Amino acid sequence: MKAGRDPQPSASMLDSQAVKTTGVGGIRGNDGAKKLSGRTRHLLVDTQGLVLRIEVPSTAVQDRASIPLVLEGVQEACPRLEHVWVDQGATGSGKAWIEAQLGWSVEVVGHPPKPRGVWAPSGAVSDWEALRLKGFRGVWPRRGVVERTRSWSGHSRRLSQEDERLCETSEALIYAMMSRLMLRRLAHT
User: Fold this and answer.
1) Is 153 helix (H, G, I), strand (E, B) or coil?
2) What residue numbers bound the domain in which 173 lies?
3) For the chain, give me the number of helices (H) and strands (E)?
4) CATH number of the domain where residue 90 is located
5) Is residue 152 part of a domain?
6) In this structure, is residue 42 part of a structural domain?
7) Per-residue DSSP letters for 40-68?
């Protein structure tokens, strides 16, 4: 508010993070793509990285299927929201659900395109060094905000992995971590 911005966000980022669980019990599932047994933290954050909503189902639930769970009732809590950035996991039915049910604009953020090879006839002299792929392809647009939020939760020892029996406990701990972070920010201003 000191910067002259509205306290209610108008844009957000939606992302998920698969986290290993311990043998304590509770809900968990297998994510074959990541070769991980555990739970997934689905975060909806504003443009400053503050958590607006969190949902923690098992990793067996795909990102597309969890979008209605995460965004259910979010319009009442944040009435100004009208745009969301999502990753590749929310394409297709997830993106269509957001646009149809909430009326928000959705932007899918992906990797920058890979440079492609060049065709050359047999025996042609080519500059192979110019065609070699260079390592780092750049930062994904808008991804740094949600990655920073996940990094903040990693600083809390209890959130480094899922040790909780109930998913609701994990959600409450993330809200508590974010409340502590916001209080520290207010104390420093």
Assistant:
1) helix
2) 9-110+163-189
3) 6, 6
4) 3.30.420
5) no
6) yes
7) EEEEEEETTS-EEEEE--BTTS-HHHHHH
Length of the chain: 189
Q: What is the pTM of this model?
A: 0.73
* Residue 160: strand, helix, or coil: coil
pLDDT confidence of residue 131: 63
Question: Does residue 129 lie in a domain region?
Answer: no
| β-strands 11-20, 29-31 pairing | unpaired
d(CA 17, CA 124): 47
pLDDT in tens, the chain (189 residues): 777 778 888 889 988 887 777 766 677 776 666 677 778 888 899 888 888 888 888 777 777 888 888 898 888 988 999 999 988 877 888 889 999 999 999 988 876 666 566 666 777 766 767 666 666 656 666 777 888 887 777 777 777 777 777 778 888 888 888 888 888 888 876
How far apart, in whole angstroms, are the C-alpha atoms of residue 187 and residue 189? Answer: 6
Structure-block tokens of residue 187: 């104390």
Nearest partner of 82 among 127, 46, 134, judged by Cα: 46
Q: Is residue 151 part of a domain?
A: no
Which whole-number Å values give the CA distances from 49 to 26, 71, 123, in the listed order? 29, 17, 54
Q: Total domain count for the chain?
A: 1
